[in-house]
Amino acid sequence: MGTDTSIDLIEFSIFATMKRIAVSVSNDLVSDNRVEKTCRSLQASRLDVVLIGRRRRGINLPLGKRNYRCRRMRLLFETSALYYAELNVRLFVFLLCHKQDILWSNDLDTLPANYLVSKLKRLPLIYDSHEHFTEVPELKYNRFAKKAWKFFERKIVPNLTYVVTVCNPIAEYFKTEYGINAVIVRNMPLKQSLLHNEAAKSGFNFVIRHNKPVLIWQGAVNIERGLEELIEAMNDIEAYLYVVGEGLLLPSLKQMATAFGLNEKVFFIGRLPYPQMMALTRQADLGLSLDKSTNMNYAISLPNKVFEYISAHIPLLVSDLQEIRSAIRDYEVGEFICNISSEEIAKRIKEMLADKERLAKYKANTFAASEVLCWENEETKIANLINEILNKTTK
After folding, report:
1. For the residues of 114-143, what is the DSSP string, one character each?
2. Which of 42, 189, 210, 231 is the most exposed place for a label (fewest CB within 10 A)?
């Protein structure tokens, strides 16, 4: 197994007397900001943290300096059922052969290995469900995969004591379906002063074009996120669009932009480490989140990007999804779009960009909103959960 470490060897003595927690995730760790924030919060609870993920073949983005250990496994398979099987086998072996006191499993795709090890070693296990996994759009047209993940969920989740999730509807789902009371830790961003410093230390100075208004869309570039309609809408919008992220839909979106002759208006940036992504986002005039309610996962989701735009102090145009409504309406930081069509997207963006006074009001309101909608106000729930576990295990 390939290993990345982000702490100096001399520091290991500090962790000798601390409880150890293994945090597992199925990605390559680089741009998973929720997991990175979680690890920071676990460290603040005086835990020795090791974060375990995978190394992607041919892609070697640096992790940057982290004050906890990071291990990335080299896997033979990159996709399909074989990838998930290999991931859980390798993860099971690693967790079984190394000492831990607590296990933290991020999402259903790392849960089988963590659950088996927790039973064999009698360790407390925390399951952190970042989304309604069995309802993600990637499973919508793959009935076999959906049934397989639903099987694991039904077999494991009812037996769990500690479950964390990101929003009220998913918590309600666990309660109704499995009788589980999940702790809601919303995926809010860290306050920007810290991110400013981290981006500066990385030497990141990406300057985007500003002779026209700048639109930003960030996240996983996947289906049913309004991206095809957004690219088509750019034919009728005098602005630049920056798409920050990657995913299965990215090649077809690039082809689409080329076919429309939009290569001088639409720019695909790929993935960036979180501080660098936010440094780019702060330069935009309008942040976009256009997820469709055509699948259950998006319909009840609380997209990270919404709060990242608020944190970056830019106005928003977002889908009218139930978990977003209160933040946008209560703080008046942007507007909703109900019809995700290219015509409606173009119309609404042009209206917002033309009304400079309205945009200035939304931007001003993001400053107060970002002081409330931040990770620092959410991480206390993690500290309370860890204290509960430690109190039980030391009795």
Report:
1. HHHHHHHHT--EEEEE-S-GGG-GGGTT-H
2. 210
Whether the Cβ atoms of residue 165 and residue 184 lie closer than 8 Å to each other: yes
pLDDT in tens, 70-92: 999 988 887 778 989 999 999 99
pTM attached to this predicted model: 0.84
* Helical (H) or strand (E) element with 288: strand 286-289
- Residue 184, Cβ neighbours under 10 Å: how many? 15
- Structural domain harbouring 268: 192-374
Whether residues 370 and 382 fall in one domain = no
- How far is the C-alpha of 62 from the C-alpha of 347, rounded, in Å? 40
Separation of alpha carbons 363 and 283, rounded Å: 12
Contact 171, 293 (CB under 8 A): no
Domain count of the chain?
A: 2
Tell me, yes or no, whether 107 and 230 share the same domain.
Answer: no
